[in-house]
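Fig. S4 source data, part A: sequence.
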Amino acid sequence: MMNLIEIWVIGIYLLSLLVVGAYGHHKSKNNSLTDLYLGGREFGVLTLFLTFYATQYSGNTIIGFSSKAYQDGWLALLTVIFMIAVIGGLLSYAPKLYKLAKERNYITLSDFISDRYPNRTLHYLVILVVIFVLGNYILSNLKAIGTIVQTLSDGAISYSFGVVALTIIIFIYESLGGMRSVVFTDAIQGVLLLITIQIIFFVVLFEFGLNPNVESTNIQEVMTLPSGNQQIKWLSTVFLAFFGISIYPHAIQRIFIAKKESDLKKSFKLMTFMPFFTTLPVIVIAIIAVDVLPELSKAQSENVIPLMLSKISHLPFLHWIIVLFFAAALAAIMSTIDSSNIAVHSILVKNIYLQYFPNSTELKIKYISMLVSLVILSLLAYLALAISSSIWAIVILKLEVLAQLFPMIVLGVWTRSINAQSVLIGLVTGLVVLLYLTLFSSIPKPLNIHAGLWALSTNFIAIFTMHNFKNIVLNR
């Protein structure tokens, strides 16, 4: 699909991220946890917006959403609402949580949980959920990296080499400058991704139009109005995004890095419009591909964006734009991986290691953090090579689990009356219901509603039942 020179250009661009990592190291002020994991809490509107953008629009969008659009047609446009719902979910708690983080010096999500709900069992259960979810997230994006690299090189670079090589680059630049390196690389790839995707979108529209061969069986299938069950399923997915993606631990860590609350709110306002400039173009390109690239299998449809771009790569004025797009897309996926990875190892170091070794020096903590990061990335790179599940399936699984943390976070910032015992019972109830529906039930999606939402409903019910029961007992 791309010649050797173009592949080398992308490779050089990705290697240049190491320079950005070195710059992040240069800007570091000390080896404190705040500096390492939050970049000193000194980021303004533009950098906040770009780091949120580069992290949110990753392999899930370019590979997962496009594949789903190819399979489901225009109904996949609901993913635009899906991504807007994420910002709604963030706004439901982020400003309040930011104020608490500044007052009480939170560095990780677990800091807030252990401070608000002093219960050791709950503390460690939340850490397990976070590790599972972020490990899942890193895994899906490592698979996306391997898929894109293999497709771009037309098989000359193997899936496994792509996963391993880019994992090494991520580890090096993140280790050099911590959160600063992550945010600085996000800013560069965010700008490139946003610009190139607009150009490519309009070129695809100009080349193929929105009125493809309507007599095509494939087009007739995607143009068909969705059934009632399909509409319920996708509406369920939108709610899952609201409750799940909005509390990604690495997104919460970005709430903590803001210099001011007003900067955080402004960055969210900008993010509200981004689904129309990123998700929408990707979905439309994938739907146009139904006629241009008919009869792709489910596995092949995860390559629909690279394959569509190969159809327009002959245009001389567009060729290098496509190269830049893929460089930015790969780097954006890498930014999602490094953001998730830093969130995981910051929790493991800050909320587990330091509980047992509180007198460790700052330099030792930094080296321990690097070691934990290396172990996590190595393990997940291995799993990315061994597991064959689709990216969309992995996305849904992690959202269903992550959504179970939503009640404790939102209730935790808005009220002081909900206690740790109520939240713990709610979380356990939700996870048990999710586990049963996912693994043992003959109907994993009752009424075509995701198991994660049924679990979340029982989670809320259990919290309020326990809370009201304790109030009745205490008032007697």
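Fig. S4 source data, part B ends here. The chain has a mean pLDDT of 82.
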